[in-house]
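Reposting from the mailing list since nobody answered there.

I have sequence plus structure tokens for a pair of proteins and want to know whether others read the tokens the same way I do. The first protein:
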Amino acid sequence: MIEQHLTHIDERGDVRMVDVSAKPDTERVAVAEGFISMKPETLALIMEGAAAKGDVLACARVAGVMAAKRTSELIPMCHPLNITKAKVECAPVVANERPDGRTGIQVTCTCGVTGKTGIEMEALTAASVACLTVYDMCKAVDRGMEIMDIRLLKKDGGKTGLWERA
């Protein structure tokens, strides 16, 4: 059995940044997603390109990439990474396409790096910020939007190898 422990907590219980200096550089990838639910009318406004602030999905994609690149500035124990890939996809979802019947935007973020530590936090941050950007750009017409289902779908690389959500 593998002993599991919190890597960002030392033997005294203090937080610390993990020392990864002895680890080899490996190719790593992570995929995360998020969903922002909204009124069908709000989704129609986005898809028609009629939002007052401009192209909502283009702005969300750019914001997600920017967030991935700045994750270590937001999450205290994250290492700064030289990201080699950051892709944010935003897809409209209508009510009959989800089990919960919600309408909205599905955000999927893929990040890659060749380095000593994983890139999961960058993918998760990108998904979160892309969803927040949609909210910011559409809040004037729909303050009831909800951001949900921010989660890791896949990570690959490093000592632990492949993990995928079932």
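The second protein, same order (residues first, tokens after):
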Amino acid sequence: MSQETIFSKIINKEIPADIVYEDDIALAFKDINPQAPFHCLIIPKKPIATINDITEDDRETVGHLYVVAAKLAKEQGFAQDGYRVVMNCNDHGGQTVYHIHLHMLGGKSMGWPPYTNKIKSTA
């Protein structure tokens, strides 16, 4: 992916973002339109346009995004209660920026209405 995105500008510190985590592989920053008390985007610093563009060589990078999510959930205090992590792919999947990213949402129940109670297994 050679096309510059808003995320590459955030990685390069060309535009501001409320960064909550950064290391050599990933960057996490608060979503500008939060859908939960805590809503951040976790992105790899390596530009990968969509899930369809992930290769075998990217498996550690993509796995690292989930490690960052777990770390942030613990730091934010909702790891035990639970949280949601979503990655969209292409237009029909709701992807608007073509640089893969995890949406991490926590701090409230993310149950699917009207099924907000836990479903008990009958197995």
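Reply #1 (J.P.):
I read it the same way you do. Helices lie at 6-11, 59-76.
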